[in-house]
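Postdoc handover notes: sequence design on the structure in folder B. Input tokens:
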């Protein structure tokens, strides 16, 4: 079957790693973004728990814990923005 060859070539082209070019990331920026993602997740987790508790009439987590998590999230966000300013990346 002479037509097998083009099909195989197409498969190879599709599997080429070039399809997902890895961006060159600043290690510090990556660290800051990861810290922000973690802080944002924690804040979202606490607010979800609070909403669920309020809806069920349960005791919600203390407001102070949520405020602390929000502060950590905001600080992490500004750290990323400050890094973008200083580094341009
Ligand atoms: Zn950087």
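Designed sequence:
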């Amino acid at each position: 079957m002479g037509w097998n060859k083009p099909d195989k070539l197409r498969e190879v082209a599709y599997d080429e790693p070039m399809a997902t070019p890895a961006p060159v990331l600043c290690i510090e920026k990556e660290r800051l973004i990861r810290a922000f993602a973690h802080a944002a997740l924690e804040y979202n987790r606490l607010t979800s728990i609070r909403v669920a508790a309020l809806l069920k009439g349960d005791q919600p987590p203390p407001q102070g814990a949520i405020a602390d998590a929000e502060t950590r999230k905001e600080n992490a966000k500004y750290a990323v923005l400050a890094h973008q300013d200083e580094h341009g990346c």
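Context for whoever picks this up: The chain is about 75% helix and 0% strand. Don't rerun without checking with the PI first.
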